[in-house]
Amino acid sequence: MGSVKKRFSILVALALAFVSVGLTPALAVDERVVDIVQVTWAGASKAAITPAEVVQLIDSDVNARWKSYTTLVGDTKDRVISFVSGKTVAEPISINATMPCNGSAASDFMYQTQSKAYSQLGISDYSHRYLVIISPNAGCVWSGRGGLGSKESTNGILVLHDSASAFVIAHELGHTLGLGHSNFLRCDSGSKDGKWGSDCKAVEYGGVIDVMGNLDTKSQLNTYHQWRMGYLDDSQVKQVWSSESVTLAPSDFAAGTKAIFMRDGNSAYWIEYRRANPAMSYKAGLVVFRLDPPPVSSVVSPNPEDALADEFSTEIGTDVWMLNLDNYRYVLSRESGSMTGTKASLYSKNITITATTSDTDAGVSIIKKDDTTPPPTPVLIDVKEWKFPALSIIKSGYEDLDTAVTGFEISVDDVISDLPGSPVQGWNPTYLSPFETPVTVLVQDLPEGSYSFALRSIDRAGNKSAWSKQVKAVIDRGHPDVTNDFSVTSANPQEVALAWTGASDKGSGLCATNLVNPFGFITQSSSNKTAPIITMTNGKSLVATAQVFDCLGNGISGDFSANASFLRADKSARTGRWEPASNVYGVGALKCIGKCSASLTVQGDVSILTGPGTSQASIASKNVTTIADSKAAKIRISSAVKVGPVKKVIRVSGSNFVFAGIAYYSTRFTDAFEIDRIEPANDSSLSDKTQLTLSNFGFNASDFSQEWTVLPMNNGTTLLDPSLDLCGATYDSEKDRTERRQMIAIKKSSPYTFLSTEVVRYSSKLVVEQAQKELQNALAKCKIDAGFTDTTGTFIPYSFAEINDLPSGLLPNGQRVLVRTQINTGQKAQQLLAFYQFNETLLTGLYVIKSDEAGFTEAEVAAWLKVAATMATRLKK
């Protein structure tokens, strides 16, 4: 169905008429190469067309069609597209089973066939080549299936299924260029327009105004698809918000205003002018398209896959739905009459359109009922959530129902002033607003200070909403104060905890202090309002990026490095009488009986851990700190003694005191700069209780520094995609999965082509044991065979490497499978780390992929193994 929903679009053809398309004179041509391959399988019938015949169709018919589609009258730009045949795979590729018709299996088939075809052709770089796959009858309802690209795409895959049609090839090539279907809005009542539902349906492919319907036509592309391809500038589309007259250039012209965009409540319309075409059935007149998509329940399609599709999103789509302004009919893939007209009334009855046409333009008059309805009352989010400077403080739902909100008024301690607002960040064009970014109010737009606050919105017609509820706002623009000052808060033979006493904020206080490893993963985080805690492994160095944020999202980032060690008292050189102290003071603590001293070699900043009694510390016979007498049976930590980088002996002496040990450390915080905290992407899947529970085990947004986006993958919250697929093996345990959550982490210029965790719940512990055994067997066979053969018969080589120096915290060997391998070679090479861990009825998988032959560094492997240990800790809970 609609290509906004699917990676691949298909063409269902129940009846096709074939007409030739004459070559239109053109400017310089963007010539694109199309290669051809044929597939077969055991028991397959003969294909409807041979590769040689496809070559002939492409070089004559298809080539002429796309030259015609992309040639506009009066165009001065070199942007004509043509398709020419390239290479042909000599023999049909034999596949193991009948070609799949639907779902991910069909997509996988296309990609696998593409890989096999170009391998046989000896072409390693096919980023600028298209591929036609000729298939015999596989029982699919469609005659063509094409991968959905974009106007920037220079490659694509399409399947020609039991068809010999040049039109089908031309249509599917349209999908590779980012075009969706030209559909039809048909109301059973006979109305020209109406609300999607029981009366008005979306007839898939039925808007046969151009090649993106499913009936052969040589008509020009509709202007919406011209715009999607970049043949119309935004300036050539007139947005109409009130009564107005517009002069439209014909759809086949290059210059002038080519289309009108209008809203009518929650419906959106695209209007173009078509000149009469003797070769077509339509008359001169306007064509009106709906852009707001139908619910799936309102779609009429011969393809049963469409009934199972996800609902359309609000983002601007690739499909359109044509209105019938005259006597057009479309039934069972047969059409008659004309869909154009010179008069139209939209279904709300608030808008009427009339046109006067000529051979060079159309004068369009639009009468729109005045908008006197104010926008909805804005609802502010809880002020406790105003933690990010770029956070919108208004909940969704403030959008104007007829036009658009263009600005705001704010009340600060009852003083009213204008506020233009800020563009909605991260906004993608929608069918209601394809050209203009909506405005909102961000925390950073508000004046600094403490005050009573309210706001109201103003729409394009000047209508003002009611005031929001008044709140007490505290806006702090100051960034945290951060210096390189620390103190020990606890220490033992395993770890040393440091309080960052140099990190503070005088305004809202601190809310988040993060340590980020070189790969973007947050290894430590503290929510302390003051003196955030950093934990160091005894004797180990730590290098990270430190990010310190206050509670309004003002931050400081810099390079942080540290090392810390704890020396037990019983490891010291001692004089006097000592005996083991109570376990309450930790392993190795000693109690001095009478007068005693203990000496240890240290450097950096030093803190002395003692219990009851009084003592003092000296270096080279000079007293550096005195620890006052205490009767409390607990550990006390002295203030830091700055010893410096050179190692020195520190002597702790006193009478009748407990000595636990000495912690010493060094830290650096350099190259600091100001940053603003960014609001994480909204994960709507967390409204589902099952997904919320599974989110406790794998990646979530708080695991990564803010330049990363972490969200569920497409189909990642379903069981539609496989979980275990290593080396193309068969995993019977897949059918006994009950829940699944797969997250993907992405950022601009990421070093990884794929970074993901997957959490799977199986029906029982026995199935988990089965899944682990299947995975171990598949891995063992893949290592022996050095790869596997895929469904197209192509051998995929694997080169495995050992994983050494495992960190503590991973699940035991009997509950894990760790993989480090290179998949394929040359330009197709991929590096894979896959860490699978099983516990009770759950699997957690961590997958890291890079696309090159360089391989992972040992530091990378170590870092992601530590992340796997974090996943294991969560899994144990």
Please explain how this structure is put together:
The protein has 877 residues and is mainly beta. The chain folds into five domains: 8-176, Collagenase (Catalytic Domain) (3-Layer(aba) Sandwich), CATH 3.40.390; 185-368, no CATH class; 383-475, Sandwich (Immunoglobulin-like), CATH 2.60.40; 485-677, Jelly Rolls, CATH 2.60.120.260; 679-876, Protein Transport Mog1p, Chain A, CATH 3.40.1000. The chain has seven helices and 51 strands. Strands 32, 33, 35, 36, 37, 38, 39, 40, 41, 42 and 43 form an eleven-stranded antiparallel beta sheet that branches. A hairpin with a 2-residue loop joins strand 22 and strand 23 (415-419). It is globular, with a radius of gyration of 34 Å. The protein starts with 7 loop residues before the first strand and ends with a helix. Mean pLDDT is 93; it is low at 1-7 and 13-27.
List key phrases describing it:
Collagenase (Catalytic Domain); 11-stranded antiparallel β-sheet; 5 domains; mainly beta; Immunoglobulin-like; 877 residues; 7 helices
